[in-house]
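Practice problem 4.
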């Protein structure tokens, strides 16, 4: 498999995993609150919450797109990957775990593994990725916590 570049970010959010997942999977709304990436679901004509394993979404990061394949879409996780086999692969993993810190809250985990022949190019931009992923977690937290609590 070769070199793997991994990035891992966590944030505590004062809402239930279900509420966090609902905002995360409302990908059509990303342009309202996050500027660095968004997802195009027009190929499947589905909402992200309805995507099944093996279905596609297009990930647009700062204007560049990559066709991705969903590998898991459950109440606990949303995972997908994209790339060119052996050349470059990005595996994006998101987890919605009940918080051990915040009663009724969520530990939101964003993890990405880059592998393949050209995965070394990612290590040339670690500050860019760190900023983008940290900013996503911060903005997601703000977006979720600004909504009324649902029961």
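Answer key:
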């Amino acid at each position: 498999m070769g070199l793997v570049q991994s990035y891992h970010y966590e944030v505590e959010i004062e809402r239930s995993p279900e509420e966090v997942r609902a905002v995360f999977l409302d990908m059509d709304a990303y342009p309202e609150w996050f500027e660095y990436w968004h997802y195009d679901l027009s190929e499947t004509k589905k909402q992200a919450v309805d995507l099944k394993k093996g279905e596609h979404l297009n990930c647009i990061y700062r204007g560049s797109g990559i066709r991705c394949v969903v590998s898991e879409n459950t109440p606990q996780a949303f995972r997908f990957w994209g790339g060119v086999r052996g050349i470059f692969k990005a595996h994006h993993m998101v987890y919605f775990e009940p918080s051990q810190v915040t009663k009724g809250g969520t530990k939101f985990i964003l993890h990405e593994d880059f592998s393949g022949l050209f995965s070394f190019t990612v290590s040339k931009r670690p500050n860019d990725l760190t900023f983008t992923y940290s900013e996503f977690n911060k903005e997601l937290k703000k977006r979720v916590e600004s909504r009324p609590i649902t029961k």
